[in-house]
Amino acid sequence: MFKDSLKEQQPIVYQILLNSLKSSQLAHAYLFSGQRGSKMKETAILLAQTLVCPNREGFACEECDVCRRVKEGTYVDLIVINGKDRTIKKEEILDLQHQFIQTGLEMYSKKIYIIEHADRATPEALNSLLKFLEEPSGEDTTAILISENTDRLLPTIISRCQVLTFASLSAKLCESEAIANGVSPLHAYIASQFIKDVDIVLTLTQSESYQTAFDLFSGFIDEAKPNLYHGLVYLQKEGTLTKASKDKDKDSDEVKNKKKIPEKDPKELFSLFLDIAQVFFKDASQGKTVGDTWWNHHIASARYQSIAPAAMRVFSEGKDKIWRNVNLSLLLDQMIIELAKR
């Protein structure tokens, strides 16, 4: 059961919630803060189950029909908004507020909403969320916000939540377990630097999105060695072709042989590219090598070591902007301008 895993992996969070449950002093709003892979979503589901489970002893039983429906997302008085691959809009928060004004449809009086990646909400959505937190639809409403970047949230939102900080798991342990499960050492190392969850690392490194992002990154690094400008221009051409240019060049063998970012989700791919880039330039800044010849060769480059601090800053800023409805082509133009002189 997940509550046993939570007790082992996040003992402080487990104990705080358990104490609140036993004393019937749960907060009306929680903010779960931590790195990807620290089981924040699973903990939110467990808390939601606990609030309505008829068989709970401390935490929910996780086995009854009510717990099953909460986990499967079919419990009517639980609403989940996920900003993983998009921006959360004001209209969604207003719709949430409207739904919670209505009479609950389940036999239990609790109404619960979970907002994943709450930091990816627009400023207007955050202001609407703040108002909802200040004026909830009733005492039986519980909010659970999940964020990997709480500095992007309004301080007033944070002040109205009980903040639970989730500890990061060991990158080295995640890496070794991923290798034991068949992930190549290089990709196990890279992914475990920004994800501390073996299951997610396994899924991610086998995905087409990750492979495409890594191919883009490796091409970028090969092109950028003489001049970072060349690498960023390469990335712009490879990753943000307009539909018109794709149609124009669709019969070109040269274009067919190149790896293009699939039209379906360019933001996810660029986000992964930036994750990989930040790992690379962090290693370059430290002169750190791993068990891969190609990676080590470029890490050892005096050129990359000299530009590493600036590159880390620019890619970090790009990562921050990518989910804020920016134009990807414009974002890359800005990165080129920032680093063209390096």
- Major β-sheet strand ordering: 2-3-4-1-5
State the CATH topology of the largest domain.
Rossmann fold
Into how many domains do the coordinates divide? 2
Radius of gyration: 22 Å
Element-by-element helix/strand order: HHEHHEHEHEHEHHHHHHHHHHH
User: What is the share of helical residues?
Assistant: 55-70%
Describe the overall structure.
The protein is globular, with a radius of gyration of 22 Å. The protein starts with a helix and ends with a helix. The protein has a 5-stranded parallel β-sheet, sandwiched between helices. α5 (90-101) links the parallel β2 (78-82) and β3. The protein folds into 2 domains: 2-165, Rossmann fold (3-Layer(aba) Sandwich), CATH 3.40.50; 207-339, no CATH class. α3 (40-52) runs antiparallel to α4 (65-72) and α9 crosses α10 (198-205). The chain has 18 helices and 5 strands. The chain is α/β, with parallel strands linked by helices and 342 residues long.
